[in-house]
Amino acid sequence: xxxxTSQVPVPARQAPVPECMIDVRHLRKRFGSKxxxxxxxxxxxxxxxxxxxxxxxxxxxxxxxxxIGAYRPDNGEIYLDGEEITQLDxxxxxxxxxxxxxxxxGGALLNSLTVGENVALPIRHHTExxxxxxxxxxxxxxxxxxxxxxxHLKPSEISxxxxxxxxxxxxxxxxxxxxFYDEPSAGLDPIVTGVIDKLMIDLTDKMGITSLVxxxxxxxxxxxxxxxxxxxxxxxxxxxxxxxxxxxxSASATVHxxxxxxxHPAAYVAKRVPRGYFxxxxxSPCGRGLG
Length: 291
Known about the structure:
The chain is α/β, with parallel strands linked by helices. It is built from eight helices and 13 strands.
């Protein structure tokens, strides 16, 4: 019987500084005759967790690829930490990418390297720090995800959940301002999913990281999110925001339908929203649009 992760303890949050770290304005993307994103706008505050949800083909992964600079939009603007990235050349974009980390869906660890060497990889690539300093940084990052004793093991020698935590340690190796998560609970059992969720919240609080999470797991989303964006066929169709980011997350939140404006308890929506009908964004204290 599947474990109930609703009881996984969630630490209390301190109110974040009302400053936008991610600002997406009227994003539009077309592949051939198919429109995959249509007028998508939202903002994300510094030190908060924003969840982007949606079924297959809803556009959530396309949004993520725009945010990391893998795609250029047909129309629209994207600001990361105040810098517009859609018109940057490759060199300038590479500098912006040092501001964020990425947790890939499959982990993307190199099997030929140890856990510690995987975490050290971005530090060695982007800095000229001495090896002694790098070793200390690796130990600190592994300590944050509870895996300091796994430093000398290979990825094939640890579980899938531990691999995901190693990938998270690598994503924060350079102390990024933003971390993007692509389906962090994919392939994990409910208990490990709860552990990863708690880690995301802890790291957001301890390091002041702004987190954007792409997922289809509604239970996880309502557990971790300060704000959510639901997408359906490339459009934002519903939104949810916790009123106080300093209060522990709860499934007692209210979700607002983007078309009708009617409100329902989050737990009701989690049960009633049909498969493939997801898409969300939040109202923004950053002073503009959806956040």
